[in-house]
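Hey,
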Amino acid sequence: MNAYEVNFDGLVGPTHNYGGLSYGNVASQSNSQATSNPKEAALQGLGKMKALMEMGFKQGVFAPQERQDVAALRSLGFSGTDAEVIAKAAKEAMPLLAACSSASSMWTANSCTVSPSADTADGRVHFTAANLNCKFHRSIEHPTTSRVLGAMFANDKFFAHHAALPAVGQFGDEGAANHTRFCNGYGQAGVEFFVFGRSAFDARYPSPQRYPARQTLEASQAIARLHGLGAEGVVYAQQNPAVIDQGVFHNDVISVGNGEVLFYHEDAFLETDKVLAELDGKLGKRGGRFQAVRVPRSAVSVEDAVRSYLFNSQLLSRADGSMLLIVPEECRANANVWSYLNELTSAQGPIREVKVFDLKQSMQNGGGPACLRLRVALKEHELAAVNQGVMMTPELHATLTAWVEKHYRDRLSESDLADPQLLSECRTALDELTQILKLGAVYPFQLN
């Protein structure tokens, strides 16, 4: 039976702006208050989706959230009509309005954690929406995320959905940005690799000192239990606290894996040799041959990795067994990173080709190619059961491009968030989008 890794890319929302809301994310903070271009951001993302589709990869679309989130503002004490709520928040608490206007759901790598049917006890694909409780602007995403996932993967014969973990620090969960799966084939049993930044209950584990560790060991363990994963198919590893303090806010900023290959910076993990040995041993028992591609700090510093988002790249399997690395333009602009990539692809290792994409709008907000996509391994019959309205085709790309051109602004600053017309524009656009993607009613304004 054929099986595929399908990339579902987040469609950048109409309120894409540079709020600088993500403490610990260097790019997000350094571009705070700059003027954004939501139209360009969405079109750049659609361009990447189209290019991967044309290369023969299975590609889907993940819808953005309703923003501004008026319900969240109401829960914080602002009252009146929707326009009055926005006006009061702009006058009294602009940081809250900015948080409730964030288009951060574009980072679908944080939307949830996915375990394929080959790994789970009940033979279904399991999804757990991430609580993202480390940051307020992201903690309000998971109810809509769950509804969108439910509309995309609706057949309960093949798909199982779990609510977000308790929204407390002990179970901080940032989704697939801290989760990788290794396998010999996408339809075969694999090894799920959970990377955490700290333990909430065990003081033996160190923690970063400058920036918060967003993923806890306890959250990763809870997801493994919910998904029915056996111990023989799970490996836990702690992220190096020192790299978190250098701006590596998620594991996908310092490593990326696919198939049998882990592409990682030598400073990514604690007890690296032990982690690699466990991955090698467990994948070997499942018919795989683990390959670790280590990037030495002498070639690429952690600072270079953070600035270029070298590891926040997509590692994709070609039909001939070689791998392709999708990187942002910032990698080519960094002399150390580009020199390393040229050496890597000429070394006859598993990674043979690099393709560069211009994703400047998303990069400036703190996320690259890997942040924009959720990976879901699906067998052929499971792929057929997915809502086909979200699967990328040339026709859908043309429709979504026209939709963006029609509804999105080409300039957005913080002061524009106070414009009540922005909410109306967003709702009009999203109402049309749910019809294009055949999602049904998933947004609060449609449900209420």
